[in-house]
């Protein structure tokens, strides 16, 4: 795999959300003082907490979690986060793994991946046999670029899922490991999709595609599986399949930027630049679409087209377009230094300007 691809994958990683488990279990925790308005906790990042206190403090961790669930359903995530963290203050730690998981989920939704990782990790430490906790931690570690740790957690989650089916013969090192998998509606599809991303990162595209397809057999409308499968076909050079899958994704998810961007990449590599422009304009201003086409045609070695599209991007922008000017300068340099021929797929140390993979919010 080229250095560019490795950097690209780390830069853009694709979107898999662990479903929030809104559970509340009764317990006999002792009541503690949770009314302190000077609330300060490493896992809280919301608004000032002075106005978040209810008239009566929760009597137990279970009650605090239940309050947090209610606040989350009401879309008050600051209050939900506050209540989940208050649950951590009780001396009896029953159900605390749930609080940590839900704290991690809210931070993941907000893009606070470091805090999400801390919370998920604590949930896993408390309850190591929970399939979804391991999956959530692995996904966040993947988004953080910690591929080895991510793979370990994702495989833990998948192994636990296979144990549900008594599938003791499953072994990820075997060539037919995907065919040996047993998956159903209760399986952590997010873990399987994230594990497929790791396969793509290691240029094992056939295995990645088989994993995405296995997930699509369970959920044929999975946004993450569809967009990642389309990009995987693009990486492996199967442009016909890439176009078919990406067009399917854009039909189902008509406003999804990743799906349209991936379809645009397929058209650019096929030198169908007008089709690429039509695709990209669905999710970005025309100046940005022209710039992206110019940038990627430059990487493909079609410098004449690159200069043309980048100049159009500059003219189409209502303000000074620094990125397009920079790309145009690079394209003209390459046009002078190299013959206008199609290059290979090895793009060196260039960095992609498109979003391609989906592994979380």
Automatic annotation (TrEMBL):
| Gene3D superfamilies reported in the protein's UniProt record | Tetratricopeptide repeat domain
- Judging by the UniProt lineage, the source's domain of life is Bacteria
The UniProt keywords, alphabetically, are:
Repeat, Signal, TPR repeat
Recorded hits in SMART domains, A to Z, give: TPR (SM00028)
- Would I find Repeat among this entry's keywords? yes
Return the TPR repeat spans.
97-130, 287-320
**Record's keyword annotation contains Cell cycle:** no
Family matches, as Pfam families: TPR_8
The record, for InterPro entries, names: TPR-like_helical_dom_sf, TPR_rpt
Leader sequence range is 1-26
Q: Which PANTHER family match?
A: BARDET-BIEDL SYNDROME 4 PROTEIN, PTHR44186
Organism of derivation: Photobacterium profundum (strain SS9)
Q: What is this protein called?
A: Uncharacterized protein
């Amino acid at each position: 795999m080229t250095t560019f691809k490795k950097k690209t994958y780390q830069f853009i990683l694709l979107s898999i959300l662990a479903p929030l488990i809104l559970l509340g279990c009764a317990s006999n925790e002792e009541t503690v003082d949770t009314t302190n308005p000077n609330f300060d906790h490493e896992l809280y990042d919301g608004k000032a907490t002075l106005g978040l206190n209810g008239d009566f403090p929760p009597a137990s961790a279970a009650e605090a979690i239940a309050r947090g669930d209610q606040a989350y359903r009401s879309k008050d995530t600051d209050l939900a986060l506050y209540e989940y963290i208050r649950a951590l203050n009780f001396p009896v730690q029953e159900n605390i793994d749930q609080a940590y998981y839900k704290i991690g989920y809210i931070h993941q939704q907000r893009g606070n991946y470091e805090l999400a990782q801390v919370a998920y990790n604590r949930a896993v430490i408390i309850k190591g046999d929970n399939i979804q906790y391991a999956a959530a931690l692995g996904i966040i570690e993947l988004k953080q670029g910690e591929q080895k740790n991510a793979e370990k957690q994702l495989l833990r989650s998948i192994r636990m899922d296979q144990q549900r089916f008594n599938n003791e013969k499953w072994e990820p090192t075997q060539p037919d490991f995907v065919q040996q998998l047993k998956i159903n509606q209760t399986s952590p599809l997010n873990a399987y999709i994230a594990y497929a991303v790791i396969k793509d990162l290691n240029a094992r595209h056939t295995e990645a595609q088989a994993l995405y397809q296995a997930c699509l057999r369970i959920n044929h409308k999975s946004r993450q599986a569809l967009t990642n499968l389309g990009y995987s076909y693009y990486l492996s050079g199967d442009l016909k399949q890439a176009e078919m899958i990406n067009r399917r994704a854009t039909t189902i998810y008509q406003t999804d930027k990743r799906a349209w961007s991936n379809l645009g990449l397929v058209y650019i590599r096929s030198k169908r630049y007008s089709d690429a422009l039509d695709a990209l304009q669905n999710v970005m201003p025309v100046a940005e679409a022209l710039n992206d086409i110019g940038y990627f045609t430059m990487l493909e070695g079609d410098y004449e087209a690159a200069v043309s599209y980048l100049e159009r991007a500059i003219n189409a922008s209502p303000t000074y377009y620094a990125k397009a000017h920079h790309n145009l300068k690079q394209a003209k340099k390459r046009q002078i230094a190299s013959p206008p021929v199609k290059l290979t797929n090895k793009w060196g140390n260039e960095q992609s300007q498109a979003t391609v993979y989906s592994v979380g919010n």
